[in-house]
Amino acid sequence: MKKRTLSYIQFVIGIILALVGAALMFFGLLPTGARITIGIVGLLLIATSRRKMDLL
Hints:
The chain has 2 helices and no strands. The protein has helices spanning 3-27, 32-48. Helices cover 75% and strands 0% of the residues. Helix 1 runs antiparallel to helix 2. Keywords: Membrane, Transmembrane, Transmembrane helix.
């Protein structure tokens, strides 16, 4: 796979994990540590993906 494709997949997985972590925090489904860990892993995946955010 190309680096660009892998970076895009990493970015999308990061978005999904961050949103799942936020939903778990909102509904209180898992223990607090697990909810925070899922959210932080999602943010780290977003931050380390080499996706350029072009504004308009």
